[in-house]
Amino acid sequence: MKPFGWQLVAASSLSLALAHAEMRPQYGGTAHMLLGSAPNSLDPVSPQADPFTAGKLLHLIYDTLVSINDSDNIQPELAVSWEVDKDRKHWRFRLRPGVKFEDGSPLTADLVATSLRQVNTWSVFPEGDSIEIDLQQADDLLPAELSLTKNAIVKRNESAPSGTGPFRVGKWESGKRLVLTANEEYWGGRPFLNSVEIEFGSSYRDQETALELGRADLVEIATEQARRLETGARHVSESGPLELLALVFAHEAQSTNESKLRQALTLCIDRISIRDVLLGGQGDLAAGILPNWITGYEFLFATEMDVRKAQEARGEVSQAPVWMLGYNSRDPISKVVAERIALNARDVGLRVQLASGANADVQLVRIRLESMNPGIALKTAAVRLGLPEPKLEGVSMQQVYEAEAALLQGQKIIPLFHVPVVYGVGGAVKGWKARLDGSWPLTDVWLGH
Amino acid sequence: MEGAARWQLAADGCLVGSLAAPARHDGHHGCDARLHGEKLSFRRKLLLVFSATIFVVVAAVAGIVSVLTGAAFDRLNGERTLALVRQFQRAFKRRGDDVVEQVEAIAAGDAARRMGLELSRLQPDYGTYVGEAKGIADSQGLDFLEFVDAQGKIIASAQSPAKFGYKDSSLNLAAVSKHAYLKEEDLPQGSALGLFAVRPVRDGEVALYVAGGIRLDKEFLRTLDLPAGMRTLLYQNVAPAFSAQFLIDPSEGPRVAEKIAPLIQKVVADGNEHSETIRWTSNRTDDEMMHAIPLPGQDGAIAGVLLVGSSRREYVELNRRVRDVAMLVGGIGILFAIFMSNWAAWRVTRPVEQLAAAARSVGRGEREVRIDVSSHDEFGELADAFNRMTRELGEQSDRLVQAERVAAWRELARRLAHELKNPLFPLQLTVENLVRAHAHSPQLFEEMFDEGTKTLLAEIANLKSTVTRFSEFSKMPEPHFQPVDVNNLIEQVARVFQAQLESRVRIECRLELEQGLPLIAADSDLLHRAISNLVLNGIDAMPTGGTITLASNRKNGNGVSIKVSDTGSGLSAEERKALFTPYYTTKQNGTGLGLALVQSIVSDHQGKVGVHSRPGQGTTFTIELPRNWERLSAGQGKSAVEN
């Protein structure tokens, strides 16, 4: 082979090696993250203004006994196995050995039982290297419940609460900044990142600007901006459509006339135009509280716009009140969506006026589902939406469907859209794999150059 | 009597007057108004005339000044309003040209071109541009920006992003105006008025239009250069009925917008300019002259109303100053009028008052009253004539007194001759008989001497009695005035005659005395004698018995009245007429001087005595006496009041 040929081979090999080097995980570095809202507290049991984001963040510090993957399968976390008796009332979870808290103390059944008893009314007691949970009624959703953030295993002592997660709290400036450092002894393996620095309170615009300027590695992206960023060759990570936009009334329809007016409102909203234009084509039209990709039955609820039927329903009521439609003034797209809904309503003779305050007749809300499990997702969503919490015992989809249908029948909620949660990922972040549940795979990412 | 009555009336009036006003040095007590009832004094008439004259003049001047000032203000206000309107129109046109320029720039820009090209596709993606309009509008400084297709369907809207797909019916794309125009824009939070321009986009196969504009708001009005005291407002005629929320007012301060509603409605109704004074508050300085000008839109309908306000504070304050000065001048004028009226009245009425006082003095009987002649005008002539009159009156009075004296002497001589003649004749006859008897027969003389001497002595006694009465009458003393309780005096008289009346069992004495009579100034002895004479007359008039009544009561003012009544045979008219004539008597042995004495005493007390009688019904004598308090000395009067 001529020297030139060898040079070529050498150059190609070097390039391949370099490229491969880039693909190989590297330890070190600090990922910078910007978020709009801060958690109220770093204790999982504290109520949160944004439970979804707070839950994703707290899962970096604490572990639950189990978790649910994108396919709604229970995955072992701090519990390696579990079993239930025939009556499905007595559960036993065997704990993972060798797990330590931040202060170095080992995870024990006592601590687990104590942690769970602090937030639940279950009968929880340690049994060797396991814990046993006795329920008064059979509940196949227990594992899914245990995957919720509130049931994270926390060691509470006189100082701050302590967890077993992949990161530890380095510095916490409440409402402003949180620094997480890698847990060297994490049972799942030390994260590649040395630390994650999270700043709170930035608007979508500021977060996008920081991402553009390289000052942030991970930011939140407004749903309606996702397509624009994608076309701009930016790395955008989307969850499944698990954020529900809906109109929620202050109370259920209390008369036939009110029911007809709400039906008219449901039929007059031009969801397709709103989704395609205002939401940037993101998300799916929603007819139910839970998205079809989680339940599979959402298509059974009607969503089509029918102006003629809406006008007929409106015409059956002699006098329609003026509805005050509230929206989140900090969310720019909410205002525009509310204005569009008001215009649609006016087209069929309904009077809807916008109000930015909390005391409105109907509110345009956005909530993110907290679990991939339909039953748990429906229960938590119902609580967040102010609906009656459905009583679900099993994992039967039939039960979930009936429960959701019952909630929708009261006409207190008009689902509009399910949209994804969108994150912008900086170019230095490697190994990011989007998850349907919207969680942050920070334990698996590393910073490259 | 008549003169005395007038004096008493004058005295009453003056006494009342003296309580209300101090007495002046000339004795007049300032009671003209009281004396003459509701009549105004000369001084007050003069005061009214002067005051009215000054008031009318000052009011007329103030009114004329006020009217002229108002006209000047209105004229100036009109000029300033016109200038401001022209300024607004220039600013309006300038801003309109700016809007046209900005819209043209957008229509020629990249975003519009891209949008035009996108629309040309089979399935255009409107979502890409829905948010662009706001950014482009902000960059160009526009408040409104819409991209619409040929049918007027909104592709992107900066002011109403949610309106994509809706048709903007307010745009008339068939006749796009070259200039900017007013247009109402329907916003989610309500309608607003804007200055718009529309331009086509010339890229792409599908027609695309850009409609941009600025909002007419406070900032727009603040760009106008306003003179002091003026302001502009803009009413957006975007609703059928007036609403204060559509009124744009850059000025500070609370105003009740509804007060301006009628003016605006008038302009909107007929499309003409109108002016009105708006009273914002009860304070007139807050009044404002509002000139309303209609602002038509593209289709000719009234899109807005420009209001130019001009404060009337200056005018109102000037008016107030004029009024205050007028009042001050009027006040000074009235004071001057008071001074002038007093001076003129003094100049005119003083001589008249002097004359009146002198006439009253003459009426009182003073004969040496003279008025000083200090001027050579009509008043001087009047005074001179008065002096001549009083002098002549005095001379006439002297002559009359002289004649009366002569007549009185003749009457006295006649009466004396008559009274003396009666007893002298028997005296003469008796002496002649004694002489004859002595000459013819000493024995007859002896027989006639005793009887003769008796007759002589009796007649001499009669003569002596007659001389004594005349002597008493001539020796009537001057009355000595002191405070006298009339009731007490009457009781004394009654006690004196009590014994005499008791001896005559058929004569009863009754007392009817009013209690609480005021003290009067009188001579108690003389008054006692007068009442006693009347009582004696009454007794003599009832030889067969009867009742004699002594009564007292208060007379008008502070005087008293004393009545002595009998139940005798009464008097005829002729007898009543001659009753007070000296020497007239109905008694056989009367001298006829008793009632003359009574009259003399009463006259000395400035009183009057009267009689009422009818035959067979008895007789009543009435003595009326004034208080005469001025006849007391100062010490006597004071001690009498204290007692």
Task: Provide a descriptive summary of the structure in words.
Chain A is an alpha+beta fold and 449 residues long. Chain A folds into three domains: 30-37 and 165-238 and 423-447, 3-Layer(aba) Sandwich (D-Maltodextrin-Binding Protein, domain 2), CATH 3.40.190; 64-155, Dipeptide-binding Protein, Domain 1 (Dipeptide-binding Protein, domain 1), CATH 3.90.76; 243-419, Dipeptide-binding Protein, domain 3, CATH 3.10.105. Chain A is built from 13 helices and 21 strands. In chain A, a hairpin with a 5-residue loop joins strand 4 (79-84) and strand 5 (90-95). In chain A, helix 7 (256-268) packs antiparallel against helix 10 and helix 12 packs parallel to helix 13. The two termini of chain A are 35 Å apart. In chain A, 45% of the residues are buried. The model of chain A has no long low-confidence stretch (mean pLDDT 89). Chain B has 643 residues and is of the alpha+beta class. Among the domains of chain B are: 122-219, Beta-Lactamase, CATH 3.30.450.20; 228-313, Beta-Lactamase; 379-473, no CATH class; 478-642, Heat Shock Protein 90, CATH 3.30.565.10. In chain B, 51% of the residues lie in helices and 17% in strands. Chain B has 15 helices and 17 strands. Chain B has helices at 2-20, 32-35, 42-107, 110-119, 132-140, 218-222, 261-270, 313-364, 378-440, 442-474, 486-503, 524-540, 573-577, 594-604, 634-642; strands at 144-149, 154-157, 181-187, 190-201, 208-215, 230-236, 247-248, 274-278, 288-296, 302-311, 482-484, 507-513, 520-522, 546-554, 560-566, 608-613, 619-625. In chain B, a hairpin with a 5-residue loop joins strand 14 and strand 15. In chain B, helix 8 (313-364) packs parallel to helix 9 and helix 11 packs parallel to helix 12 (524-540). The radius of gyration of chain B is 58 Å and the shape is rod-shaped. The chains are: A alpha+beta (449), B alpha+beta (643). The interface between A and B is medium-sized, with 18 and 14 residues.
